[in-house]
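Structure tokens
________________
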Amino acid sequence: MSSAAETAGHPAVRKIVHVDMDAFFASVEQRDDPSLRGRPVAVGGDPNRRGVVAAASYEARKFGVRSALPMARAVQLCPSLVIVRPDFSRYKAASSQVFSIFRSVTPLVEPLSLDEAYLDVTENSWGETLGVNVARKVKDEIKAATRLTASAGVAPNKFLAKIASGWRKPDGLTVIAPERVEKFLEGLPVEALWGVGKVTAARLHAIGVTRLVEIRTLPEEELRKAVGSWAEGLRELAFGRDERPVVPDRPAKSCGAERTFDSDLTEIPRMEAEVASLSARIAAWLERRGLFARTVTLKVRYAGFTTVTRSDTRFPSLRSASEIRERAVALLGKTEAGARPVRLLGVSVHGFSTSPFEPSGKDDQLSLFEEL
């Protein structure tokens, strides 16, 4: 399925979301220990043993406490600082919840750390055409699942999305639409660029460059003297150009589409029509990638927020909209839909292969939509 712009020879504008959890380690500690809430907290080592700050709460940051700062210095800056030893098992558990949400939206998830990732949501399981709506829903899902906040940036590329996510922390959401890119770039200092730390910034300032856009007109020789072999890449970023794709750390194991309804559904024919629409979107996804799927999974969330899934695995594999719809509708009959109002419906497929008669070898893989 190609857009008019694509068929005319112009690539569609990507919708990239960068999500960054807010003061992640410190926020987990404050969530789990109510006595820490509202207090300056630093997660890290012993100040008497050359310990370093791994994360600082926003209350601590007001005193100048930052990650990588020696803990002894942090205590000097903030005498009331509460130091907590890190518990990575809890941080990893929270991270797993967050990344499960990411991967339920799109298979194109590129992790940067336990608490940070890029998502390409140009196509997404919610069928949202606006990246800002996806980002807002992701933030809401994270808060509901983990009781933690995240900041998100939405832009046409990774470079801009990452800058945007840090614009209004904590719990921020900043969008840089394609038509606003130039205006946004004009207000950025050179320090906004990746890799431009104090030393490089000082070199650029010394040759009269303080704003990002000023790099565009700087003679090549001068720029190379200041930043070396990174000159060409830096100039591209100064124009807001960044063609790097979001590279997932794992292959797509499933594809899903779902819809939450403004009013709960009570009639089976309406539910079947929604299932047919979701099935068509999944079939188009499989067609574009030349894939077939052995398993169809239906997800139903009732009005009381109870969520169930039903799955059907068969051979040979399928990819047509009618076959996916037929099996998903049959699964609908194995739920309490109709007897109970339905808030959300989702359809997903997994167990991929490149031929309907080729075993997928992935029968043990879970769908994106597991039973909650």
